[in-house]
Design goal:
Strand content: under 5%
Helix content: over 70%
Number of domains: 1
CATH superfamily: MFS general substrate transporter like domains
Distance between the termini: 38 Å
Largest sheet: none
CATH class: Mainly Alpha
Structural class: mainly alpha
Radius of gyration: 20 Å
CATH architecture: Up-down Bundle
Order of helices and strands: HHHHHHHHHHHHHHHHHHHH
């Protein structure tokens, strides 16, 4: 029996999304050890998160011609190879120079959003589009949950360097695994763009990318709320393990279990929320409600004292604060003109990852200045409430 095109598209993009998330979320899980190796304080893991997000922004701003030239699957393969190189650099005793590996990790992670959206918008049945996008985006918390369970075990069994080596091998194996999808999913691409390499360092490419957000009146608001969620999610991914490790006296394995639970709940949340959104519509209002609930859950997380409360709040935070992305991506793809889907999702995600650069840096400064993790998390939650209220009063998209 012939497999539907949408099923092949979902399988390929979900696999890549999961593996890339596993690799990128593994880095902050190793934060205390990586920072000790570099001679830095534990909260300086925010530097790695910020530099990685800057790498994602670089691809989203300037990588459109690369995507058009190679096609989505080949671009995803090149991205995973770049992530593997970045992890190798990060594993070397290079001090602060080793943090440049985070830039390569981010750049390699960048193609997932525009390439995945380009593949799925061509093949997903409209009646189930949000659910399919949400399942694909569920690969992020699935990879995060796997990282939370596997990485602490690997570190204890094999050490930091060997763990990084295992993650590199997983990325390279995934590059080979998605090769069979290339014929069907890259076959519809247009003529290549010979100047794609030059575009990576040309400001004009960024301007063209951002200008696509003028294609529909709802895109600026969707982009703003996506940036707000991204800021919150970046801080949760970057600091939750270190917060649990330093403030609750947990072991690295216990901190990994909290992160795994949070990511696993997010995986479930993305699918459930996507299914509900397909049936209820009004995605912008839905995102507004979710923003306010997410902020409340984060505030409860940082006031939790008993272990059962910490785990319970982590699950609620994962379901809400990290379960937004599928609805957001599907709504961007819905309102964007079909030829501009990859450009619109790249431009919107560019602002989201720019927020992911700023968020951990601001969070890190709040902690360093004596505010503590609790104050920093609550500040990030407050900005999410503000954007949620704006969404609830915005005019629905046509």
């Amino acid at each position: 029996m012939k497999v539907p095109l949408w099923a092949s598209a979902l399988a390929g993009t979900l696999l890549v999304q999961t593996v890339c998330a596993f690799a990128s979320i593994a880095v902050p899980l190793m934060g205390p050890l990586l920072m000790a190796q570099a001679g830095l304080a534990p909260e300086k893991i925010g530097l790695v998160s910020a530099i990685s997000s800057a790498g994602i922004c670089w691809f989203l701003a300037c990588g459109g011609p690369m995507l058009n030239h190679h096609g989505p699957i080949r671009t995803l393969q090149l991205g995973m190879a770049c992530m593997a190189l970045g992890l190798f650099v990060l594993s070397q005793p290079l001090g602060l120079l080793g943090l440049l590996g985070a830039l390569a990790i981010g750049f390699g992670n960048g193609p997932n959003t525009p390439a995945g959206s380009q593949i799925l918008i061509r093949s997903a049945p409209p009646a189930h589009r949000t659910l399919i996008f949400s399942i694909k985006q569920a690969g992020v918390p699935l990879g995060g949950a796997l990282a939370g369970l596997a990485v602490p075990f690997l570190i204890l069994a094999c050490g930091l360097a060997a763990t990084l080596g295992v993650i590199v091998l997983v990325l390279l194996a995934c590059c080979l695994a998605v090769q069979p999808f290339r014929r069907t999913l890259d076959g519809a691409r247009g003529p290549g763009e010979p100047g794609w390499a030059r575009a990576l360092v040309q400001p004009a490419a960024m301007i063209r990318c951002v200008s696509s957000l003028r294609a529909h009146p709802s895109l600026p608001m969707l982009t703003a709320v996506g940036a707000s969620f991204s800021l919150m999610q970046a801080c949760l991914n970057a600091f939750t393990a270190t917060y649990v490790y330093t403030r609750h006296g947990a072991s690295l394995a216990e901190a990994g279990q909290v992160v795994a639970l949070m990511q696993g709940a997010s995986m479930l949340g993305r699918v459930v929320i996507g299914w509900v959104s397909d049936r209820m519509g009004r995605a912008l209002r839905h995102l507004g409600v979710q923003a306010i609930v997410s902020a409340a859950a984060v505030c409860l997380l940082v006031t939790a004292e008993a272990p059962w409360m910490l785990y319970g709040c982590a699950a609620v935070v994962g379901f809400t604060a990290i379960g937004w992305n599928g609805v957001h991506m599907a709504e961007l793809a819905r309102v964007a003109p079909t030829p501009l889907v990859s450009s619109v999702t790249s431009a919107s995600s560019l602002f989201g990852f720019a927020a992911s650069v700023c968020g951990p840096l601001v969070f890190m400064m709040l902690v360093s200045w004596g505010g503590g993790y609790e104050v920093a998390f609550c500040v990030m939650a407050a900005q999410l409430v503000g954007f949620g209220l704006v969404c609830l009063t915005a005019k629905p998209a046509a």
